[in-house]
Specification:
The chain is about 60% helix and about 0% strand. The chain is built from 15 helices and two strands. About 15% of the residues are buried. Residues about 190-200 have low confidence and may be disordered.
C-alpha cells in the first residue's frame, strides 16, 4: 500500500532513460564507446526504445525521494560526506535505515508505489553489446606486455580484431557498426590503468608503450581492411540491387505481348511446341502457368497475347509490334545468340 507521505512524479520514458544513462558513470558502468554516438538521435532513440521494453526493478533512491523530497536527500548526502555542516536536518541514519527496511518489506510483498520502479538500462541488448566490445578492447589495451616481434604483435592484434568484429556483428542498429570500428581506429589514447600499477623494476613502461603502439597499428590495419572489404561489399550489393530494381521496373513496363512473342521464339530455337491437347488446341492452364512461374502473376494476359500471335506472318508482326520488334526481342532475350540467328534467318526486313 502506498505510504501516506509518499509523493513522486512519474517520469516519462525519455526522462527516466536520461536519468539512468547519467547514473552509469558514477558507478563505473558507463560505456565509453557509446559517448561517441550520443549525438546520433536515431541511435539514442533506438537505445531509449530498448530501455522502455526492459523489465523494471524497485529502486530505493526513488522511494527515499518520494518520502523526503530530493532536496532533503541531497542535503543529507552532502552532510554525510562532510561537504556542508547543517545539524538541523531531520534525516538521520536511523530513520533512513528504518525506511530502507520498510522499502524491502513492501518490495517483497509487491506493494511498492509504481513510481519506485525503474527500467534496467544494463539489461538492454545495446548496453550488453557495447559492454562486450569495450571489454575486449580494454583487454587489448591492458595486456601485461607484448612479445616485441612483429609477427607476434600482428597475430595478437588480429586475434583481438576478430573478437571485436565478432561482437560488433551483434549490434542491432546497423549504422553504428562501421562507426564503432572507425572510433577504435581513431582512438590514440593508451589506457594507463594497467601501466600505473606496474612502475617497478620488472616493468619497462617505454617498452610497453612502444609495443602497444605497434600492436595498435596492426589492430587498426586489420580493422581497416575489414571495414574496406565490408564497404566494398555494401557498394557492390547496392549496385546489384539498383541494377535489379531498374530491370524489374523495365520488365514491369513491358507489355505482356512482348513476352508472349519471346516465348514463341524460345520454343522455336529449342525445337519445342507449345502445350496442346489431342485436338491441337492450346492448353491454357499450362501456358498461363509458364508465365506465372516467372512473374507470380496469373498469366492470363500472357496467354491471350500468345494465342493471337502468328510468327510466320512477318507483315502482321510489323503491324502489331512495330518495325524494330526484332531488336526489342533480342534485348528481352538477354542477347540470346540462338534467337538472334533465328530472327536473321527467318525474317528478311
Amino acid at each position: 500500500m502506498k505510504n501516506d507521505n509518499f509523493h513522486l512524479d512519474m517520469l516519462t520514458i525519455k526522462e527516466e532513460f536520461n536519468e539512468e544513462y547519467k547514473k552509469l558513470q558514477p558507478f563505473g558502468k558507463s560505456l565509453r564507446l557509446a559517448k561517441s554516438f550520443e549525438d546520433d538521435d536515431d541511435f539514442m532513440l533506438a537505445f531509449e526504445e530498448e530501455f522502455s521494453r526492459t523489465s523494471t526493478k524497485p529502486d530505493l533512491d526513488k522511494y527515499w525521494i518520494g518520502l523526503f523530497t530530493k532536496k532533503k536527500l541531497d542535503e543529507y548526502i552532502l552532510i554525510q560526506n562532510g561537504i556542508i555542516q547543517d545539524k538541523k536536518t531531520t534525516l538521520t541514519e536511523t530513520l533512513l535505515k528504518k525506511k530502507e527496511i520498510e522499502f524491502n518489506e513492501l518490495s517483497n510483498k509487491n506493494k511498492l508505489p509504481k513510481e519506485c520502479y525503474i527500467h534496467q538500462i544494463e539489461e538492454t541488448n545495446i548496453y550488453k553489446q557495447f559492454r562486450a566490445i569495450e571489454d575486449i578492447y580494454n583487454r587489448f589495451k591492458e595486456m601485461k606486455g607484448f612479445d616485441s616481434s612483429a609477427d607476434s604483435l600482428r597475430q595478437q592484434a588480429e586475434e583481438f580484431g576478430k573478437g571485436l568484429i565478432s561482437e560488433i556483428q551483434n549490434i542491432n542498429y546497423e549504422p553504428i557498426k562501421n562507426k564503432i570500428i572507425e572510433v577504435i581506429i581513431n582512438d590514440k589514447q593508451n589506457d594507463t590503468a594497467y601501466t600505473n600499477g606496474f612502475f617497478n623494476n620488472n616493468f619497462n613502461k617505454k617498452e610497453f608503450d612502444d609495443n602497444y603502439a605497434k600492436a595498435k597499428m596492426y589492430l587498426d590495419n586489420y580493422l581497416s581492411k575489414y571495414l574496406d572489404t565490408k564497404n566494398q561489399h555494401i557498394k557492390t550489393e547496392k549496385l546489384i540491387e539498383s541494377t535489379n530494381s531498374k530491370n524489374i521496373v523495365k520488365i514491369k513496363k513491358t507489355p505482356e505481348k512482348w513476352f508472349a512473342l519471346l516465348y514463341w521464339f524460345e520454343l522455336e530455337v529449342n525445337g519445342e511446341k507449345p502445350p496442346t491437347n489431342h485436338e491441337g488446341a492450346f492448353i491454357r492452364k499450362e501456358i498461363e502457368e509458364i508465365r506465372k512461374k516467372e512473374t507470380g502473376k496469373d498469366g492470363q494476359s500472357f496467354y491471350r497475347e500468345f494465342k493471337e500471335i502468328n510468327i510466320d506472318d512477318e507483315k502482321e508482326l510489323n503491324i502489331k509490334f512495330g518495325k524494330d520488334w526484332k531488336t526489342k526481342i533480342i534485348e528481352l532475350s538477354n542477347n540470346n545468340e540462338k534467337i538472334k540467328q533465328y530472327l536473321i534467318s527467318k525474317y528478311t526486313s
